[in-house]
Design a protein that fits this description.
It is built from 3 helices and no strands. The protein has 66 residues and is an all-alpha fold. It has a domain of 46 residues. 2% of the residues are buried.
Length: 66
């Protein structure tokens, strides 16, 4: 019985709760978000393989010709 109590105390002493991790919030400036919304409106599709990667990239880089 004493042995079980010692083992229990040992295990309880070794156990610890992980510290709560801080919440990381991504900060995206308004110009990038507006550009993303514009490109999403132009190139969005339900099928990712149909997205034209080069056009999407150029749009997100601000190289699109309207």
């Amino acid at each position: 019985m004493v042995k079980k109590l010692i083992v229990l105390c040992f295990l309880a002493g070794c156990a610890h709760t992980p510290e709560q991790q801080p919440v990381i919030k991504l900060q995206v400036d308004n110009t990038k978000m507006e550009r993303f919304k514009k490109c999403r409106g132009l190139f969005y599709t339900n099928y990712p393989e149909e997205i034209k990667q080069e056009e999407w990239h150029n749009c997100m880089q601000g190289k699109d010709n309207e």
